[in-house]
Amino acid sequence: MSVKIVVGTQFGDEGKGKIVDYLAGEADMAVRFQGGDNAGHTVINDCGIFKLHLIPCGVFNESCTCLIGTGTVVNPDVLIEEIDTLKQHGISVENLRISDKAQIIMPYHILMDEGMEKSGGIGTTKRGIGQAYASKFLRKNLRFEDLLKPETWQNKLREYISFINVQLRYFGIPEESEKKLMLKMRAWSDSLSPMVCDGFSLLHSFIDEDKLVLFEGQLGVMRDIDLGTYPYVTSSNPVAAYAAVSGGFPVSKIKEICGVAKAFTSAVGDGPFPTEMKESESTLLQGSGENPDDEYGARTGRRRRIGWLDIPMLKYAHKVNGFTELALTKLDKMDALKIIKICIGYTLDGLAINGLPDTDSLYHVVPVYKEFMGWQSPTTECKTFDELPENAKNYIEFIERQVGVPIHYIGNGPKRDKIIRHVVGL
Ligand code: GDP
Ligand code: IMO
Ligand code: MG
């Protein structure tokens, strides 16, 4: 077994962090392959409670090499802070590596993201993600390889700064000083250079030896820049195939693709959300915000929008990714519900439609629901599928049949060990 990819099937926050932490127990390498610190991946295990933004959730397995891969955009300040936090908890980051080709998020990217959001944005996390990717595609950005060569970064910064300042002026933001940025680069270089590596060769060496390499997706397919609800999307491709594109290895090396789905749906940020509930309907699923698994953004703390599970969305995610298995998280959060709804299709202008329509139409579709009786009993202590209440089993098996993918992992609590392995499926 070589490459296994874990990706989100909805709007992000499906519980990818927990699944990767669980699977990483057997992995030789864990890789973040897109996005940046817009991610908030919660891990709750014997080491504590963590919300990781950049470091792969495999970091808790000391023998797992962690790579922040080529397709990512990285704010070095956030990375340094995250490394420090892990160290304070006694977690080793000896095996952490950063691809030389990963892109750097500069302070001005964050200022511009804030500026864009002020003048009518889409509800980003304001971490400079879109702006860093824009600079990458304009071929005017710094990469981690530049940290190793002071002369190179100095020349590049001198070239970029006037162009950047034109944009800052447009947003009415004070201009950046070249000197300040040079000092930042120096400090980042001092701290992070030892971790910078030839990411391509490192990855290939693991794949060639048939080691288990786990890729950790950020966000979910509905926020994919090409395949999501554009323009209410992020600026990267949180889909399985992008792991191969950015890592530079053949897609034929991918052996397993695990889609993580929450047992209901959540979203942060603007954009259409067909199965969204009214706030008064979602109180039980939302939680108060006091528990780490309540529905508040792990990155921004924003209240997540909540909706019923959406089968057309999961089918679409499967079409895009080709899942070999699903992980269904947060089943326990539905324990108290009397009635549970699942969206099994949409109508548009009174007519049934196939698949997902374009973004504008998605605002106008009417979900067709199937109702399930809730199980109204706790599932958190169940260790096997057979121990689950009958109605919970019906709910899970219905999802498997509808999407056409076996659910191999069922989450029944926020901690690492709260996972039921379900190998029969379909
Ligand atoms: P990610 O971005 O996909 O890694 O997901 P987040 O960490 O942003 O959000 C998922 C939330 O659900 C976190 O608070 C997790 O602790 C929590 N979680 C994950 N799986 C389960 C589960 O099976 N049960 C419960 N109760 N919480 C879970
Ligand atoms: P994880 O990895 C949920 C959303 C933002 C916004 C859109 C674009 O924890 O699932 P961006 O800052 O990326 O330019 O914002 O994407 N978003 C997320 N929503 N979980 C995330 O990450 C997110 N990362 C970005 O709310 O709608
Ligand atoms: Mg998250």
Your description of this structure?
This protein has 12 helices and 20 strands. With about 425 residues, the protein is α/β, with parallel strands linked by helices. It folds into 2 domains: about 5-75 and about 200-420, Adenylosuccinate Synthetase, Chain A, domain 3; about 105-195, Adenylosuccinate Synthetase, subunit A, domain 2. The strands form 5 sheets. A 10-stranded mixed beta sheet has the order 9-7-5-2-10-1-11-15-19-20, sandwiched between helices. α3 crosses α4 (about 130-135) and α5 (about 150-170) crosses α6. The longest helix is centred in the middle third of the chain and has 21 residues, at about 150-170. The radius of gyration is 21 Å and the shape is globular. The structure holds guanosine-5'-diphosphate (GDP), 6-O-phosphoryl inosine monophosphate (IMO) and magnesium ion. 6-O-phosphoryl inosine monophosphate (IMO) binds near residues 40, 41 and 130. Guanosine-5'-diphosphate binds near residues 8, 18, 292, 329 and 330.
Span between termini: 23 Å
Biggest sheet overview: 10 strands, mixed
Which distinct ligands sit in these coordinates? guanosine-5'-diphosphate, 6-O-phosphoryl inosine monophosphate, magnesium ion
Please indicate the count of domains.
Answer: 2
CATH superfamily membership of the largest domain: Adenylosuccinate Synthetase, subunit A, domain 3
